[in-house]
Design brief:
Elements: H1 2-12, H2 22-35, H3 41-49, H4 52-55, H5 60-71, H6 75-83, H7 93-110, H8 116-132, H9 137-149, H10 153-166, H11 171-183, H12 187-200, H13 208-220, H14 224-237, H15 245-258
Amino acid sequence: MAKIYLTILFLSISFQNAYAIPTDQWCDKEWYTVVNTNASYDELLQKWLSLKNKCEGTGIYEFRLSSLYERKGNYKKAKELIYNNLSLKSKYHDYLLLGKYGFEFTDLINVKNNNKNEYITLINNYKKLIKNNPNWVAPYESTANIQLFIGQRENAIKTAKTILKKDNNSWLARRILVIAYTETAKYTNAKKFISEAIKLNSKLFGDSEFMYAAAWTYTVNKDYKTAEAVLNKLIKNNPAVKNDKKFYKVVNFLKQEMNKK
């Protein structure tokens, strides 16, 4: 989950910095010229690499290059790009810190670290980025994501609401709200954001945690047909859920509720 989130976050976030030098600004803007095409990730990588002579050392170049390597599955290369450039004197240094904290979160999950204090430290690091730039949505999204992961659901809801006030197009905030509201039995609230989230990011059809929450919420609201459709869509987009105990928990709940009719 964290790896998928890290990928999409890297490819979508924007950062406003009024003090960036012209080269930084040009490279930042050029990123959107590069990605706003139907090119494959291999083609995007080659296009971004072609800007090395102009953009290397700006921070934004290294951050975006890391995102492309991570998306292509080269996690080691992506991580090295961030860590090897943390000493850059760049106006976009917070981008590199964002990347560093993202990898730290992923690594904690991969080693199944259950020390909540480690995650709290990451949240505090993101809060420092927020303090530096209160209008930058990315660290809010990262904060809410971790809050949800460690079970701070009410905090996650509060942070996600703040995100939507700053960026009403955040699919991640809606994803977090659907899951957090479902897990706190606020099903009417959860239902409101399901279709909105999917419209903004169709990749959520393969996101097991999101789809489980959606199916559960539709079941509670007695919309059994939609709940069943959600589960079928999930299997189509993520067949591996057939080996997940959570999947069968949701399926059995749906069957149980349907039998009450």
